[in-house]
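Tokens for Leucine-rich repeat-containing protein 14B. Go.
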Amino acid sequence: RTTMKSLRFISAEAFVSNAELARKSLSAVAHDLFPLLFKASYLLEQGEVIHDLVENWPLFDFNMGKLLGATLDYQEDLSHRTCSVCLESCLTGLRDYVLNRTSPYMKKLKVVDLTGIKDVEVQFCKCKKTMGRWARTQLLSKLCSELLVYLQQAECNPGTFEISINVLIDLFVTERNYELVMQALLKKCSCPLKICCVAFRSDNLTLQKFFYIIKLTDPSLLRKLEIVHNVHLEMEHLEMLFSSIHFPLLMSLTLPARTFNVRRFTATDEQMLTDIGVKMGEMTQLTELSMSFSILTGRIQKLLSPLKTPLKMLDVSNCSLNHADMAYLANSFHANHLEALDLSGHDIPELYPSTFSKLLSHCSSVLRSLTLEDCNIQDTHVNMLILGLSSCQKLQEFKFIGNPLSSQALKRLFTFLCELPMLKNVEFPVPRDCYPVGITYPIDDASLCRFDHQKYERVAEELNLILLQANRGDVKASTPLFGSYDAAVQETNNELGAYLIKSFKETLEKFTTSFNKMS
């Protein structure tokens, strides 16, 4: 698919394609042409030109999302291109903007917004090297630290110290880059480039380090907080976090697995859960909540009823919800506003079929994304599912891998899915008849890949043919056996793997020590 370019954009491409000439001529370029030249340079991956454009940026703000998004001159959105060459040139250009010898009075830049960059699975840049969120965090922190060292050692223009640029960024901190980010945040006041954390993700971090760095980020500005893998945050720590730090602008909260476990609850724990609900209720902007793999049986109302703003996104996958929880969700004021819902890991047809249908009917006018993985949906439940989904005319994404459905049932379901006008993405299971007879669900990791791959390919082709015959070639259908793509995990999987091996080794050593003592 080719996107139309205006004559202005074609001229801009021609200008920046000769990097040497473009760099020499920048001083003669009209200020309002800088955004146009930036997008053209980004498309052509002209790193040196990008660097010089940013180093000499003549405008008050530099917003990556807007600069790379759809424009009148070129409709294609480039914000999902996390090209390493382009982004590194951009950030080093920002550092050199501060160090550039031109008069500080000429420097107007006040805000740099890097939050519009989107990390996606498939990259179209020629260099094929990406710079993900973790690497952007690392590089910006490194440049801030280097800048401070340089300013202390060199004889700089006195006006350089008066430069103050807020750099809005989504930080991603793990054990490996913690020290660097922490130092950059500690010295923020002295640095002309001021890191302003809008979203914060933490993986592979001790609780002590997490609590320390979250306070340094200026939580009053935080809109999104993700505490995900290998941060051992339990309920008492969450209560401590909410009691000691206020998050007035927080819109999205993701908690790690096993934050809650009601099976071990005492009377004190019940009160703590109530307090957490009240604290979340004080976050008046909170509309997205993810609490997967916690045990929350019978406690959803206690957590969610204090919220004053209806949730637009709720992930309670594998949370052992009972009928009372589902009844609360179906009748709560959240139901009419849910745009994304994940109920994976619950036996919906067996436990609460009618309550689920009620919940679906209440959110049908706004629901965009529905995830029902490992929900024991069988062939006999397909009619119920079709009935429930038929009113969800705004549905864009439907994920239901891990359900014991036959090829025939999937074909019936796909024939119906063609009728959903907004649908763009479907994740479907390997048909049950592709696995050996007697396979049990949910399928364990060891058996997950032991299916008839040739038969699966034939079925997948037939399902895609159903879409094509209905003129729905715009729908992407796939079977990601080990879950959907996660850019953050993809970028840090080596560190994540090393951490898991270390944890396993430590657990094994503790077990051996205890066993030896018993012997």
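The mean pLDDT is 93.
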